[in-house]
Write a structure and sequence with these properties.
Elements (H helix, E strand, L loop, with lengths): L2 E3 L2 E6 L1 H7 L8 E3 L7 H8 L3 H12 L5 H11 L2 H4 L7 E3 L4 E5 L10 H4 L2 H11 L5 E7 L3 H10 L5 E8 L5 H8 L6 E7 L2 H12 L2 H9 L2 E5 L5 H20 L9 E6 L4 H12 L3 E8 L4 H7 L3 E3 L20 H8 L4 H14 L1 E3 L2 H10 E5 L2 H15 L5 H17 L5 E5 L7 H7 L10 H10 L5 H4 L11 E3 L14
Parallel strand pairs: 5-15, 6-7, 6-9, 7-8, 8-16, 10-11, 10-15, 11-14
Antiparallel strand pairs: 1-2, 1-3, 4-5, 12-13
């Protein structure tokens, strides 16, 4: 399996090269040159494997310069039972109305990013060895909340790496901030920026393509890499959990083998739902991929307005901050796939986005996208109502992002009459967003965010995840705040780690 940039497919690289470098020199994203098919034999094997085995099998289809033994070892370590609360790494919980909640938040940071970011350190360090790279990998991460902590947890004190995370100072939940600024490890740095996630993400991309920065780091024996979903090594592990969910649904009788499902995903940077799209290309029987947005509904408009993407709009800070994004990076990969790998087309569209903030996809390309996707959006009020109704009617507690997906799915089902069984990606523990969930349930807020864990437990009887409870009494290590225009100057901090 070879990989090419979405903006220049003339140069082919290995999986390990793509993972080690994170982003292509031209600013494009690395993509596989084809989609490997899951055979009948594969499906039989998947049905009888645990999550660790399923992950290794799926990754083996894409990472062909890794051995099966290597991937099995990495999966066993990444998804160890003590990290994910047992052998059921990504459980599926059946609710009414055809909903099947794929819980992706049982890992060490209580968010779906753990599903990839516990695996990525193994893939990245191995990729450095395979490519003969001896420099220290400096991992830059822009986060809207969950990626930052998951990346910090995955890479802290990993030999041969340094990691710096940027987050919007007013754009994450108090619990997300507390998780990041108390992170332990000698090779980590956390920086708040005066701006939003898009500002952080754009700045990180500029750093990656700045030759002066790259040359300066090279002289100091360092290289740049990424733990955002722009890195194929972050995206690839996410494909496995949709395939695993289907196997569990077949085993539980929710669907017959070969029967179709819908998949609804709360979406910001488009990586999580793109993983579901790739799973479909591999043979996962999917009827519709339903893209759920919050009030920052640039993706909903893209799907509903014939492929018109326009980030020139108001930006809203919502109760689902991990989705407060107007530039969805992984949509670039979807455009590349849907246009039959037309790198010149994608490069032109991305240039239009960079210069004018918008682009229009050609009708024939959008027709391919539209056949796979539906979309909808949900504001904070509707998400609050959904949290309350789910608890009152089904005794199921969910966070704000998952609530957005549930509401959008229910709207989709009412609008279309489609009763196909649906997998809804539940992307974070409700305890990561205590304030919003407590308010939705009519509870009384505490001033201290760690104390709110006890309030939510008192309201529901649901115990708080141990990693969040352990934050009580921890002293913040990081308090640096910079203007969004000064992010480039922070790269020098890497030398001091």
């Amino acid at each position: 399996m070879e990989y090419v940039s979405t903006r220049d497919k003339s140069r082919k690289v290995s999986a390990s090269y793509a993972i080690a470098n994170g982003i292509a020199p031209d600013g494009g994203l690395y993509c596989p040159t084809s989609f490997p098919a899951l055979t009948a034999e594969d499906w039989h094997a998947l049905a009888n494997l645990d999550y660790k085995g399923r992950s290794a099998l799926v990754l083996g289809k894409f990472l062909t310069d890794f051995s099966g033994e290597e991937l099995a070892d990495y999966a066993a370590k990444a998804y160890a039972d003590d990290k994910f609360g047992g052998a059921d790494t990504a459980p599926v919980v059946a609710l009414g109305g055809g909903k099947h909640m794929l819980e992706l938040w049982h890992g060490p940071t209580c968010a779906f990013k753990d599903m990839a970011l516990q695996m990525l350190p193994h893939l990245l360090t191995a990729s450095l060895r395979k490519t003969g790279e001896t420099r220290t990998a400096c991992i830059l991460v822009a986060t809207s909340g969950d990626t930052g902590k998951a990346a910090l947890d995955g890479f802290h004190d990993v030999e041969g790496t340094k990691i710096m995370v940027y987050y919007p100072v007013d754009g994450v939940s108090p619990m997300q901030k507390l998780q990041m600024v108390t992170q332990e490890g000698k090779n980590v740095e956390v920086v708040a920026i005066r701006g939003n996630f898009d500002d952080a993400q754009s700045a990180v991309k500029r750093i990656f393509t700045d030759e002066t920065v790259r040359e300066g780091l090279d002289k100091d024996g360092m290289m740049l890499s990424s733990a955002n979903s722009i890195n194929w090594g972050r995206l690839a592990p996410q494909i496995a959990y949709y395939i695993s969910a289907y196997c569990d649904m077949v085993k539980n009788g929710a669907v017959k083998m070969g029967g179709k499902i819908n998949i609804c995903v709360p979406t910001g940077n488009f990586g999580n739902i793109l993983a579901a799209y790739i799973a479909k290309q591999m043979g996962l029987p999917v009827n519709k991929l339903i893209c759920a947005s919050n009030r920052n509904n640039v993706l909903t408009d893209f799907f509903k307005k014939g492929g018109s993407y326009d980030k020139n709009r108001d930006f809203y800070t919502t109760t689902s901050p991990s989705m407060d994004i107007l530039i969805s990076s992984n949509l670039e990969r979807l455009l590349f796939f849907a246009s039959d790998y037309d790198d010149k087309l994608v490069a032109a569209l991305m240039e239009q986005l960079a210069k004018g903030g918008s682009y229009q996809v050609a009708a024939d390309v959008f027709a391919k996208i539209e056949s796979d996707f539906d979309a909808g959006c949900c504001d904070d009020a509707a998400a609050t109502q959904t949290i309350r109704e789910l608890w009152e009617n089904e005794h199921y507690l969910c966070d704000t992002h998952t609530a957005v997906a549930v509401r959008v799915y229910e709207d989709y089902r009412a609008r279309t009459g489609d009763t196909t069984p649906a997998v809804i990606a539940s992307t974070a523990s409700p305890f990561k967003f205590c304030r919003s969930v407590i308010e939705a349930l009519g509870g009384t807020l505490e001033k201290d965010d760690v104390s709110q864990l006890d309030v939510l437990t008192g309201l529901t009887g649901v115990p708080a995840p141990a990693p969040l409870a352990a934050l009580a009494g921890k002293t913040p290590r990081f308090d640096r705040v910079v203007d969004k225009t000064d992010i480039l100057s922070t790269v020098g901090l890497l030398r001091d780690l």
